[in-house]
Recover the amino acids of this structure.
């Protein structure tokens, strides 16, 4: 998929450590689009809170979501954003700004997320906040224009799954009735 294809707006979402930034950057390159690292756009106060191990609340996240939504809504190029988008209300807020927005949900278990976050050097998000993210997570399964992938699968395989899903998703997304052998898309 390249620059001659449809403009796509995609949020790669999930808890910290699921691989949002890695897959998001790969997807943006494949789409000849722009990658936006969502964490880089938190307000300074929110960044301090995270560094100090304090979980963000809705009031911290709302201005951040508005910034990301505005960045995606502007322009005529494909944009991929890494954003936890943990709650249905956060995703609705982004959808209100960006028509036809799609979400790729990287699903991961708590133990693996904690292990990955603990192994990161120099990242502002401490592993102590992983549990809070799982508590806040409202699964996007059942929402329109959502692709669920396993964060444990190879990145390259997930990238191919996303590209194929985007190529086949014009208006409606088919409902996967719980297959466990591949990517999952729900309407």
């Amino acid at each position: 998929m390249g620059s001659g294809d449809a403009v796509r707006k995609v949020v790669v979402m999930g808890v910290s450590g699921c691989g949002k930034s890695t897959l998001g950057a790969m997807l943006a390159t494949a789409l000849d689009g722009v990658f936006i690292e969502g964490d880089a756009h938190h307000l300074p106060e929110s960044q301090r809170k995270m560094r100090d191990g304090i979980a963000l609340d809705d009031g911290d996240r709302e201005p951040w979501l508005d910034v990301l939504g505005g960045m995606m809504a502007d322009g005529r190029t494909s944009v991929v954003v890494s954003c936890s988008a943990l709650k249905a209300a956060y995703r609705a807020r982004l959808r209100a700004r960006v028509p036809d927005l799609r979400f790729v949900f990287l699903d991961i278990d708590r133990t693996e997320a904690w292990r990955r976050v603990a192994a990161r050097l120099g990242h502002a998000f401490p592993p102590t906040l992983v549990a809070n993210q799982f508590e806040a997570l409202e699964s996007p399964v059942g929402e329109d224009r959502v692709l669920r992938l396993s964060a444990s699968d190879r990145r390259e395989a997930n990238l191919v799954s996303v590209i194929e899903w985007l190529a086949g998703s014009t208006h409606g997304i088919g409902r996967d009735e719980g297959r466990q052998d591949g990517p999952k898309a729900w309407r």
